[in-house]
Amino acid sequence: MNTAEKINKLNIPKHIAIIMDGNGRWAKQQGEDRIFGHHEGVNSVREIVEAAVEVGVKYLTIYAFSTENWNRPKEEVDALMELLVATISIEAPQLNKNGVKLEAIGNLKSLPPACYEELQEAMKLTEKNTKLTLVLALSYSAKWEITTAMKEIAEKVEKGTLAAKDISEDLIASHLCTKNYPDPELMIRTSGEHRISNFLLWQLAYAEFYFTDKLWPDFRKNDFYEAIIGYQNRERRFGKTSEQIAKQS
Ligand code: IPE
Ligand code: IPE
Ligand code: MG
Fold it and tell me: What would be the CATH architecture of the domain defined by 10-141+184-233?
């Protein structure tokens, strides 16, 4: 049985979030500079998106550039932005053919104009697709997202269009960038780091975390399937007891 066949098709996470990490270290291992690793990482993204479509995942959120990543050396930031423009422009037609809808979360206005425009174009091209929603987290950080949401909510209270007593978990969620997506059931991080680096702090409240030592450019379809199988072997209790969960199922 190959790895894909071991997946239980009745228990596929609807939403998987990925922190793709380790491009720089991968390149260093090859004696190349960090940018080479980012280029190679695009091949992994392509494969994982295909795999997600194949197994029937509905939402895939990929952390591509964090707010903190703006603090990297200028040459690396510039190269990443160029790579982003080139990748979106090359991949958009294929994404469209495969029924993938491209969306983005983050402080998109802070992206270079060429990048912002390419992104808007690709999102427009793919907006009617329904197989998979691919969400790129770009210039994204959860603390930025939550702060922005809090400001919006406070403004509504100030204007009198919202009463403080009506602030609920659902209302807060409806002010986040992810308002149109269910919370991820599974979060994958590559490269052996065990942290969430300011990614989806609210939305990952009850996600299962899957860590692998593989560096992102080495993370391919079978690794993605392994992560799903790992998820399927867990018991999600949501605060209840194991006995209660057994009774429910
Ligand atoms: C992840 O790889 C890609 C981005 C953050 C853009 P890194 O660039 O963080 O690679 P490492 O972690 O330094 O190896
Ligand atoms: C997290 O990776 C951000 C992205 C994958 C885009 P980093 O490599 O930037 O995170 P830290 O610095 O190791 O926490
Ligand atoms: Mg890193």
Answer: 3-Layer(aba) Sandwich (3.40)
